[in-house]
Design brief:
mainly beta, three-stranded antiparallel β-sheet, 3 helices, four-stranded antiparallel β-sheet
Amino acid sequence: MKKLLYTSNMPFDMSDWEKFPIKSVYAGTGCIMAITDDGAVLQKIKDESKAARTEYWTRVNQISISKWADGLAIGLVEDGTCLIAKRAARFMCEVTGTFFEALNAAVKEWKNIVQVEASDSLFALDGDGNVHYAALGDYCRKDYSEVLSWKEIRRIVTGTQNSIFGITEEGKVLCAGANCREKYKNLDDFSDIVDVFPTGSECEELYLVHRDGTVSEYRTGKIKGVSCGEASLPTKRLDGNFGYSVYALTKDGAISGVSHGNFEAPFEGSLGITSFAVGDVDYSSPFVLAIGQEG
């Protein structure tokens, strides 16, 4: 039996979600979303004017919510196409001087997509290992242009802003964006990575999960006492927020803090967690949301 888990600082009333058979959860700033076993999409958002019309979010396999802009979300449909939370996107287009129609049209053109990400732009990874993006503003359009030349990517991860990482099937890591391009020039030194997560308002720290399950920080080396379990291909093992808070899904189905020596677990015991997400409201202390198993 699945169990909905969340930390005591969760800013939303979760009582109505308790009755749903939720299989995956997602979080950003000011917003959380979920996909149920029967394909429904749920959302809770602080600013209701930016709420997604979730009744039209059907056959969705994955969601990403921006940690930069309230409610800015993108969904991956099972046929490999994408959809976006239009109210939040329209608002951010007005802020950044971007034509919403152009942004929406660009996303609609994407096909054969296998993963999506949202930050200060919208990103998609296709089944051939190519990365696509729809920028919010001219600066982002130029800042991320090099991702179009990336090849054989199997997972993408965004920072809060001006940052994206791509992981190849072999575990090599690439990055683009002003907040990480100069900081992480030695990523070629790593060749066995399955997940990464940057933290800090300008990606000052980068955490990496190796294929053998160990976790390390880019500059300081491996973190003792935490293992995410072996993984042969890139997959989600880390999440967090910009405030130097990063959490890992461990091999025994628990969540452990890994940043700044913080190994505090947001939930007690090994709960067989299969999906988790980290969010915040107004860039405050992060909350953790997860799906575990009863008993």
